[in-house]
Every structure is written in structure tokens, then in C-alpha cells.
Design goal:
The structure is a homodimer of 204-residue chains. With 204 residues, chain A is mainly alpha-helical. Helices cover 76% and strands 0% of the residues of chain A. Chain A has 2 domains: 50 residues, Arc Repressor Mutant, subunit A (Orthogonal Bundle), CATH 1.10.10.60; 145 residues, Tetracycline Repressor, domain 2. The longest helix of chain A is centred in the first third of the chain and has 24 residues. The interface between A and B is large, with 55 and 55 residues. Chain B binds a DNA duplex (30 and 30 nucleotides) through helix 3. Chains A, B: It holds the Pfam family TetR_N.
DNA sequence: ACATGGTTTAACCAAATGGTTAACAAATTT
DNA sequence: AAATTTGTTAACCATTTGGTTAAACCATGT
């Protein structure tokens, strides 16, 4: 029962790789460390995934495909902007709290290798702002929200939600909080951020 | 005239190191590459800065000491919150546009090595939120701005200003912009972000 | 001129690293 | 059950990498 064609082993390797790559990045990760974490021989890594690069890409795509659906929720949904902002903010913060390395990993590796995103954009269900854009324009026209471009609003939503995770060590130092106090700050943001955005854009 | 005690050489090395470290990070940087960029022998790096680690720390501290004064401007200044937000946003975006790798470098390396910030916090003129906190509380009490904690406001300001640089490749892909269009988006944010924040917090 | 002391270089080194190989073990096919 | 394919391992390999060394270089003080 040891040497069965193990659907699991592939996953097992991927999990170990994910953990190492996401905390140390492509350059900082060591194949030996991944092998150790997966509890297998280093040669096995190359047997299942031919090279470090390919293993990395598998991890990266996997990570990205976790993030994408979360973002699509803000965009391709028929609720009002306000309701979408509230839902997204709360959901997203919960989501990241369970995958703390995710945003930083993706951002970091995309900066290291910006051409990488080209491959991702080919994916047919890659994030698309078109619908969101129309909706923002409509609500602006109807006077529900103040004039703002969809792109800027989208960037603001992303920034307010993601940045506190990406810059955690820096912000912990600046706000002089320890881990648990910072966690509370983040928890508060589930409603705080939505209010901040709505306050800013809602017509009075 | 070649072999004089060259105050300059040290700087020359630091500049090369800065450029390599900031674009590739500690793990991705190679001593040889830094030497090449500085136009010197690899052994010289070790002559001036004993090790990669020390050279890196010199670069990091240097980078951080560029950033800090910018942030202090938001905090330890007597202008109103509104005026500070407007000034900071415009200034900071200009500043980063000239040091595009800076925020990402600092954030990335602090995530790689969170203990690193402890050394920085020892510095007596390390960023301190106390004054800002008092000011926010006062303006809230006077009814100038809506109730918000200084920490959350500070995080929001940081997020809205810094994130677009840190996540540039990701946001370029999502907003489907090329380099020059993205540059324009950023340029617009010099006033856009300030308005967004002020709209949100100013009492009507 | 030459001794001195900081500066610079080419050659070298040991450790680490991604990757390969060849042999072995366990399933699967025939 | 023999043959073949698939999974697994230890040992090995070439290259890269941070770092060292010993000798050369050169400006300056004596």
C-alpha cells in the first residue's frame, strides 16, 4: 500500500511547495526544504514537476485561481455598488485572514516577473472590469453615487482591503500594535472600510 | 588619481547595491551583479561592506530613511487634517514616482524578516502616531470630521497612496491599462485620493 | 628613493543548489 | 509469473555563490 499511483502525492508536494514558496518567494525557496516538508526525496519533486520553475508556476497559478473568484464577486454581480462594497470587504478580509501569505506572494512574484501576468490574462475568465464600469457610470448618472471613475474606485477598494495584509509588519510598527491588537484592527475593518468607501461616494 | 581614498567609491557601491537589491530583493540579488554594476571587482564589495548581509542592511536603512520623513509630514505638522491629507497625497505620489521600487522593497523585505523592524523602532525619530492621534480626536470632537480612529485613518491614507505602486502589475492587468495609461491613473490620484478621503471623513 | 598603509585585483575555495542517474521496488500488463 | 511500466531512493554532478587570500598597486610621508 505504499507505492500506489498516488493522486495524493502530487497534492502533497503542491501543498508543501505552496507553503515554502509563499513564505520565502521563488528565490528564497529551496527544493530540499520543499522535499523535506513534503516528506519525500528531492528527486521526487523533479519526477512530478520537472523543475523548480514549473513547480513554482503550478503553485502560483493555484494561488491566483483562489484569489480571482473573490474579486469577480465585486464585479459581476447585480447588487448595488453599496451592497457589493459591503459584501466584498467583509468577505475578502475573512478570506485573506485564512490565506495570509496569498496577496503578498502574488504581488511580489508579479513584480519580480511582470511578463507572468500575460499568461494569466489569456485565461477567458480573467477579471474584467467592463460590467463594473457600466454599473458605476449608471449609478453616477442616477445620482446614487458621486462622480468617480470605475478604475479609481476599484483601485481604492483593492487598496483598502489588501494593503493592511501586505504591509502588516510596517503598519504594526507604525501603529505600535502587537499581533493580537493588529488582528483586532483588521477585524474592525470588515465594516470600517465599507463605511469609509460608502461615505465617500454616496450622494447626500 | 585612481587610487585615492575615495569617499565616492562607497557611495558608488551603495548606489549599485540599491539598484540591484531594490529590483531583485535580498535573495534574488547577486554580489557579482552588484560589483558589475558598480564597475568594480567583487572583492571590493567585501572590502567596503564585509558581507552581503551588511551591504543589504546599509541599503535598507538608507531606503527607509528616505521614506520616513515623508510620513512624518502627515503626522507632525500643525495644519488641519484635511490640508495634511491633501498635501501628503500629492507629495507622496510625486515622491514615489521617482523611487518606484522603494515601497515594494521595504514591504517585501520586512515580510521576509519581520524582526528587522525592531532595530528600526529603536531609532528615536521613528514614526510616532501620538500627535496625529490627538489631532484626529480633537477634530472629531469639534465636529470637523466624522468619528474615525486615528489608526484606521492612517492605514487608509497609507493604503490608498502606496498600494497602487506596490501592486502595479496586478492593477495594470485588472484595469487593462498599459504603462502610460497607468501612469496617468496614478497622476490623477494626486487629487483623486485626497478628495476620496476628505469626502469620506469631513462632516457635512 | 623607499618604506608604509590603504586600495585593488585575479585566482581560489568550500558550501550550497538545482538537477540527473542508475539501480531498486512495487504495481500493472501480458 | 514474466515482462513492463511506474514510483522511489541514494549517490552523484556541474554550476553558482558568498567569501577569502596573497600578491600587486599606488599615493604619501620620511
Amino acid at each position: 500500500m505504499k507505492k500506489t499511483k498516488d493522486e495524493n502525492k502530487e497534492k502533497q508536494i503542491l501543498d508543501a511547495a505552496k507553503s515554502i514558496f509563499q513564505s520565502k518567494g521563488m528565490d528564497g525557496a529551496r527544493m530540499q526544504e520543499i522535499a523535506d516538508k513534503a516528506g519525500i526525496n528531492k528527486a521526487m519533486l523533479h519526477y512530478y514537476y520537472r523543475s523548480k520553475q514549473l513547480l513554482f508556476e503550478a503553485v502560483f497559478k493555484n494561488a491566483f485561481s483562489l484569489l480571482a473568484p473573490q474579486l469577480n464577486a465585486v464585479l459581476n454581480d447585480d447588487a448595488s455598488i453599496e451592497s457589493k462594497v459591503r459584501n466584498f470587504t467583509s468577505n475578502y478580509i475573512s478570506f485573506i485572514a485564512e490565506h495570509p501569505y496569498l496577496p503578498n506572494f502574488i504581488i511580489q512574484e508579479l513584480n519580480r516577473n511582470p511578463e507572468f501576468i500575460i499568461k494569466l490574462k489569456d485565461n477567458p475568465n480573467f477579471l474584467n472590469l467592463d460590467k463594473f464600469k457600466v454599473q458605476v457610470e449608471q449609478e453616477v448618472e442616477k445620482g446614487i453615487i458621486k462622480p468617480i471613475s470605475a478604475e479609481q474606485l476599484f483601485i481604492n477598494i483593492m487598496a483598502l482591503n489588501i494593503f493592511p495584509f501586505v504591509a502588516k509588519p510596517l503598519l504594526m510598527a507604525f501603529t505600535n500594535t502587537d499581533n493580537s491588537a493588529y488582528k483586532q484592527l483588521i477585524e474592525d475593518r470588515k465594516t470600517e472600510v465599507a463605511d469609509f468607501i460608502i461615505n465617500s461616494i454616496k450622494h447626500t
